[in-house]
Amino acid sequence: MASSSQSWSFSFFFMASILAIISQQKVAGVFWPSPWQLAHATFYGDDTASATMGGACGYGNLFVNGYGTDTAALSSTLFNNGYACGTCYQIKCYQSKWCFTGVPFTTVTATNLCPPNWSQDSNAGGWCNPPRVHFDMAKPAFMKIAEWKAGIVPVMYRRITSYTTRETIIAWNVAPANWQVGLTYGTSLNFR
Question: Which one of 61, 95, 166, 179 is CB 3.0 to 4.6 Å from 175, fit for a cystine?
Fold first, then answer.
């Protein structure tokens, strides 16, 4: 009887130890945000972000395809020959008089390449020259973290998971009866 009690105690202790170790490990397949790192950011285009349409990632019209104005062109160091297309980053202005106070960060999606400008020094206009890590943000995204007059600001950034629900929603009979191709319509209802 004593040996079965000791065996049970040992098994319980052993399993509890294994569970404690496993619970402290990161689960494989789960994305964890990268640590905050230093970079710089500029902006391109105007307040409408119309100049950011298209781009090296091939997303076309960023409004129609769901990206809006929270986008950025990445320096080739981050762009990684296009493998970074669609990745998301949290960006916060860092230690500049141009930073907006009370703004923890903004989130952008990589939709374009900020090409190197070999005719300019990396610290004087060649912001996207390797090995520099740089975000050339759509102007509306940049203006969430800093005053546009700054031109360029130091930032902290980290890669995060892109937000998606990965679900398909099918809705029947949602357009008005008089709707035709080429027309838009509005509603006060939304999913969720």
Answer: 179
